[in-house]
Specification:
Blueprint: E1 2-4, H1 5-10, E2 15-24, H2 28-31, E3 37-49, E4 54-68, E5 75-89, E6 100-102, E7 107-109, H3 111-120, E8 136-137, E9 140-141
Parallel strand pairs: 5-6
Antiparallel strand pairs: 1-7, 2-3, 3-4, 4-5, 8-9
């Protein structure tokens, strides 16, 4: 989704309303994230131009992303609902203003903002596999942080229990 400075100058009161559906199957952003694909994203919101050089985005995003199951690596569909706000500038800005995105060739590309907002919503760990079906083998098994923990003494320290210490 790209918008030029001319689009904002021609818009009523400098406001563009967005109501779009997009899908992202392969992208450089996705290669370095937990998200495999984003089959559908509904983007609504506004882009407001201040009539000089700044554009303020206020977006709402909802849709579905595909992430791998943390245990079985099967594809899982995860729904998300998030918001994103960014500030863009058609003119160069001070280095102190690292929150402002300077656009090139008078064209604002919203795709990086959208992908970043969706990737932030990706779960760190997710599984649909019941605990009884977690993988296990000879002398090992996958544990959950929700499993009860057994108090065991490290065998290297167990010998110390034989010593009687006088606490008086």
């Amino acid at each position: 989704m790209k918008f030029t400075k001319t689009d904002f100058q021609n818009a009523e009161n400098g406001v563009l309303h967005i109501d779009e559906w997009i899908a992202v199957e392969e992208n450089d952003f996705l290669r370095h994230s937990q998200v495999k694909s984003i089959p559908e994203v509904h983007i609504t919101g506004t882009l407001q131009f201040d009539q000089s050089s700044l554009v303020f985005s206020d977006l709402e995003l909802d849709g579905v992303m595909i992430v791998p199951d943390s245990i079985t690596l099967e594809d899982l569909e995860v729904t998300f609902d998030t918001t994103s706000q960014s500030t863009y500038s058609f003119d160069p800005v001070n280095q102190d203003d690292d929150e402002i995105i300077v656009v090139k060739k008078d064209t604002i590309d919203l795709n990086p903002e959208i992908l970043q907002a969706v990737i932030y919503e990706a779960p760190m760990n997710i599984t649909r596999c019941p605990r009884s079906e977690y993988p296990k083998g000879d002398g090992w098994q996958v544990l959950s942080d929700q499993d009860p923990k057994e108090e065991t003494i490290d065998p290297r320290w167990e010998k110390l229990n034989e010593f009687k210490l006088d606490d008086n």
